[in-house]
Design a protein that fits this description.
9 helices
């Protein structure tokens, strides 16, 4: 009986914590959205966050997308070859990269790199009472810290996804033409015929939502941090895990809607 009681208590705490976190994140969302339209606009901080999220995440996104495209091209070509349909490999690679793998891989890489940095930075400010110092200076912490990151995340994820799509397609092309013996002209022609603007823009729209979710979750856990350096590490870990899971779960629903 005690084991059952303890198990139910643990499940109850998890449920309560989930709804508490969700409520706080939604509250942060509404507050930040309202403050976007109210001056002052901290353009310097926005541009800095665009650099942190976009430019500094570009190398890891490009490398990851290239090798994902290579692996996907390798499996697609070898799989379709079993049925004598190797000519379909470029089509599958193109659609998979632009509609799914490009935005998802980009979001996961950004969550692990830039998202963790967001939480650690804001969390460190929280435990050292710098956020309270902002309030004493009549500066709204959400306006100063959360809004620039939400804007930068929403803007930069689609830009990074464009690079991920390009290098992912290049990775698939590289494997298929150099290792599998497919004609370069046939591969490019099949890829060009398979892709529609709606496929590309659908993936970019997903990336826009992913960027917003990552920035919202990571800033939320930053503001929620307590307990010194250990608390910063715990919040950072939670933010990466929750934002990554949110990307993967929301990808299904966005795919269903789009």
């Amino acid at each position: 009986m005690r084991l059952i009681r303890d198990s139910l208590s643990a499940v109850g705490r998890l449920v309560v914590n989930f709804f508490e976190d969700a409520g706080m994140a939604v509250t942060l969302w509404f507050k930040a959205t309202a403050l976007v339209f109210i001056p002052p606009w901290h353009f310097r901080i926005i541009f800095k966050q665009c650099e942190q999220i976009g430019l500094r995440s570009l190398p890891v996104v490009v490398v990851s997308a290239t090798f994902v495209g290579m692996v996907f091209g390798l499996h697609s070509f070898s799989g379709f070859s079993r049925f004598g349909a190797s000519g379909l490999a470029p089509t599958v690679v193109a659609l998979a990269i632009t509609k799914e793998m490009g935005p998802v891989i980009t979001a996961l890489m950004v969550a692990g790199r830039a998202g963790a940095a967001m939480t650690a930075e804001i969390g460190s400010m929280k435990v050292t009472e710098q956020i309270e110092a902002l309030r004493t200076l009549a500066t709204n912490p959400i306006k100063y810290l959360a809004v620039p990151r939400l804007i930068a995340g929403t803007l930069m994820l689609p830009v990074l996804t464009i690079f991920a799509d390009a290098f992912g397609l290049f990775g698939g092309y590289l494997v298929s033409t150099s290792m599998m013996g497919m004609s370069s002209q046939i591969y490019i022609s099949a890829t060009w015929d398979a892709l529609y603007a709606s496929d590309i823009f659908g993936g970019l729209l997903k990336a826009t939502f992913f960027g917003f979710f990552i920035a919202l979750i990571c800033t939320h856990y930053g503001f929620k941090t307590k307990g010194g350096a250990e608390g910063v590490g715990l919040s950072t870990t939670k933010s990466v895990v929750v934002s990554s899971m949110t990307v993967l779960i929301s990808d299904f629903f966005l795919t269903r809607l789009l």
